[in-house]
C-alpha cells in the first residue's frame, strides 16, 4: 500500500493525523480521547493505525521485567489488533475509529466490577462480541482474534511507526500532517483536558515537537489515568507511580 493511499481519509483526502494505537494501552486511550476532541474542533481527519506492544516487547522477559499480567494484556492487545486489521480490510479505514472507541470504552471506561475477569479475557469472544455490536460491526469478525495471518500487517505497521520515532518508545505514536510532518511518541497524559483546553494543549505539543532539533521532554512519575477501570474519578487525581521504560517494570 502506498504512502499516499494509506494516509487518505474515508472521503479521499489526505488524513491530517495518523494515530498509532494498541487498544490495551491506557495512555493511548487517554490521548485518543483528547485527540478526538481536537479533531472535532479543528476538523482534522484521523487515520487510526496499528502498533502492537506485544511485538515491541517480543524480546523482553515479561516475568523478569514487568508486573504480573502485562504479557496477558499485551497478548490480548495483539488479538484485538488482528480484529481491527480484519475490520479495515473488509469495511475500510473509516470503520477502525468506531471500533477502537467501542474497545476503549469497554476496557477503560467501565468500573472494575464491570470489566472482564482478567486481562486474558479481553482477547476472548465473550469480551469482543458486544464490542463489535456497539461499533455496528458483525460479530463474525471475532474469528480474526486468532488469525495469525494478519500479524504481518501488524508487524509492518508497528515497524512503520517506530521508523518515525525510533525504537525506545511506546504507545501512542502520532504523525501530524503525514507523510512529511512531525511524528512523536505521546503525549502521555493522565487527565483529560476540558474541551476549551484541548486546542491549546494541542498547539503547545505541536509547537514543541516541530521545533528544529527537539527530541525529548520526559518524567517517569505518572498519575494513574482518570479512567474508571483504574478506580479514578474523572474529576479526581490518581496516585503517582514511577514508570521505567514506559511501563511499570519490576526492573529498569
Describe the structure.
It is a single chain. The chain has a 4-stranded mixed beta sheet with strand order 2-1-3-4, with helices on both faces. A two-stranded antiparallel sheet has the order 5-6. The protein has helices at 3-6, 26-42, 53-56, 62-65, 70-91, 96-108, 125-134, 151-165, 195-209; strands at 17-21, 46-50, 173-176, 183-185, 221-223, 240-242. Helix content is 41%, strand content 9%. It has a single domain, classed as Glutaredoxin. By secondary structure, it is an alpha+beta fold. The protein contains 9 helices and 6 strands. The chain starts with a helix and ends in a 10-residue tail after the last strand. Residues 1-7 and 9-13 have low confidence and may be disordered.
Question: Summed up, what is this model?
Answer:
The chain is an alpha+beta fold. The chain has helices spanning 3-6, 26-42, 53-56, 62-65, 70-91, 96-108, 125-134, 151-165, 195-209, and strands spanning 17-21, 46-50, 173-176, 183-185, 221-223, 240-242. The model is unreliable at 1-7 and 9-13 (pLDDT under 50).
Helix content: 40-55%
β-strand number:
6
What is the general shape?
globular
Estimate nothing, just give the exact number of structural domains.
Answer: 1
Could you name the CATH homologous superfamily?
A: Glutaredoxin
Low-confidence stretches at least 5 residues in length (pLDDT < 50)? Answer: 1-7, 9-13
CATH architecture: 3-Layer(aba) Sandwich
- Strand pairing plus helix content: what structural class? alpha+beta
CATH topology: Glutaredoxin
Spatial extent as radius of gyration:
17 Å
Cα-to-Cα separation, first versus last residue: 38 Å
Strand content: 5-15%
CATH class: Alpha Beta
Number of helices: 9
- This entry's quaternary arrangement is single chain
Instruction: Tell me about the largest β-sheet.
Output: 4 strands, mixed
Question: Average pLDDT across residues?
Answer: 88
| Order of strands in the sheet with most strands | 2-1-3-4
* SSE order: HEHEHHHHHHEEHEE
